[in-house]
């Protein structure tokens, strides 16, 4: 093992000198080279970016994986540079339990067949969640983490180096100032009235020594100023790159929102399909005689209205709304692109086919989850979640 004592002593001396300089600056006993206002603004902006990026990154992790134990496990696998083992989502586990229960109860029974339908839907929801987590991690979490562990570490290292260069520069300025004061004092006219030769010799020798010390201190100051200016320029370029970081994070944020919107749209689609399946088979469900007294509540499972969306109009409201009598407003009609196929549940609704264009508008008093859609001479209610409104 090569142990360089001289280098260790030199580094220790430099560290001690910088510590003394820093302490004197804090106590107001030494001058400090101030950075310009633009540079200070860049530093403040960089610190703000780092702090909020870290908070957003941590909270996004919590949103995507609420289980802290799972997050710790993934963190350890990453540190060990090992692939995280696949983990089923909660929806997939629930769906698997329901399918296994259906086998036990019998797939031909009403309860077993319903468990199969709901279990299959839960597995699809879990698969959509898995895809959303993967997409969000790639498009949003990883870029934020790369900034914190890559670009920001480089900026922090260069900022620390700049601070050291500044301390060295201020120390050189202090030495030059001290050498000038000593040279001026040594160059004063000696008193020739007493011990004239001795005073003259000492004064000339001290003046020459301090003149040499001043030249050395000024040379060190020029070197320190050059190194400080060079390091300040490098740090400034890195800090100005924060603007590019914001642009990149903006793009990642839009991709995250797009993935989230797609995930919730898929979940809504799966649940609507499940509601229609359960609604179509609800008429075949019969309660045992012993439970007849409980089979007629205000909202029984066999009541189709129990499977309608929460904000959808009731059957009475549907009957009251005569689609044929609805007239489009003078302004406010828009074109919309159909995202998914939709089969009308009754005569008041309009069936849709994916990728077709229709005209849509709203009418006063209508539920916000529905619009009036027109295709040629056909007219009816259409769900908003199945549409992409075009400007």
TrEMBL record:
Gene Ontology cellular component annotations, sorted alphabetically: Golgi membrane; mitochondrial outer membrane
Keywords, ordered alphabetically: Apoptosis, Coiled coil, Cytoplasm, Golgi apparatus, Membrane, Mitochondrion, Mitochondrion outer membrane, SH3 domain
UniProt xrefs under InterPro entries: AH/BAR_dom_sf, BAR_dom, Endophilin_SH3RF, SH3-like_dom_sf, SH3_domain, SH3GLB_SH3
SH3 domain location: 331-391
Subcellular location: Cytoplasm; Golgi apparatus membrane; Mitochondrion outer membrane
Gene Ontology biological-process entries: apoptotic process; membrane organization
CDD domains xrefs: SH3_Endophilin_B1
Coiled-coil zones: 207-234
Annotated ranges, domain BAR: 24-287
Family: Belongs to the endophilin family.
Name of protein: Endophilin-B1
Organism: Cyprinus carpio carpio
Lineage: Eukaryota, Metazoa, Chordata, Craniata, Vertebrata
């Amino acid at each position: 093992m090569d142990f360089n004592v001289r280098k260790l002593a030199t580094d220790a001396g430099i560290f001690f000198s910088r510590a003394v300089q820093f302490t004197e600056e804090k106590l107001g006993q030494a001058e400090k080279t101030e950075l310009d206002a633009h540079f200070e603004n860049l530093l403040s902006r960089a610190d703000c970016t780092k702090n909020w990026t870290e908070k957003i990154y941590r909270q996004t992790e919590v949103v995507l994986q609420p289980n802290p134990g799972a997050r710790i496990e993934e963190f350890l696998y990453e540190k060990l540079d090992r692939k995280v083992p696949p983990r089923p989502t909660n929806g997939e586990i629930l769906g698997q339990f329901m399918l296994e229960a259906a086998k036990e109860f019998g797939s031909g029974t009403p309860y077993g067949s319903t468990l199969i339908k709901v279990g299959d839907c839960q597995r699809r929801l879990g698969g959509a969640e898995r895809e959303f987590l993967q997409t969000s991690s790639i498009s949003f979490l990883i870029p934020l983490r790369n900034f914190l562990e890559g670009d920001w570490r480089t900026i922090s290292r260069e900022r620390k180096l700049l601070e050291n260069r500044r301390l060295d520069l201020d120390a050189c300025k202090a030495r030059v100032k001290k050498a000038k004061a000593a040279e001026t004092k040594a160059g004063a006219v000696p008193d020739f009235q007493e011990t004239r030769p001795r005073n003259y010799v000492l004064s000339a020798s001290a003046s020459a020594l301090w003149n040499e010390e001043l030249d050395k201190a000024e040379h060190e100051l020029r070197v320190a100023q050059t190194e400080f200016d060079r390091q300040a320029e490098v740090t400034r370029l890195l800090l100005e790159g924060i603007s590019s970081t914001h642009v990149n994070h903006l793009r990642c944020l839009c991709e995250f929102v797009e993935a989230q919107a797609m995930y919730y749209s898929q979940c809504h689609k799966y649940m609507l399909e499940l509601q229609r399946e359960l609604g179509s088979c609800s008429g075949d469900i019969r309660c045992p005689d012993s439970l007849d007294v409980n089979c007629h509540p205000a909202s029984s499972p066999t009541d189709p209205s129990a499977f309608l969306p929460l904000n959808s109009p009731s059957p009475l409201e549907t009957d009251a709304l005569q689609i044929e009598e609805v007239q489009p407003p003078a302004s406010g009609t828009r074109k919309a692109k159909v995202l998914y196929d939709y089969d009308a549940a009754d005569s008041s609704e309009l069936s849709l086919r994916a990728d077709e264009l229709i005209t849509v508008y709203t009418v006063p008093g209508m539920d916000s989850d529905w619009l009036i859609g027109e295709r040629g001479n056909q007219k009816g209610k259409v769900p908003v979640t199945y549409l992409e409104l075009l400007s």
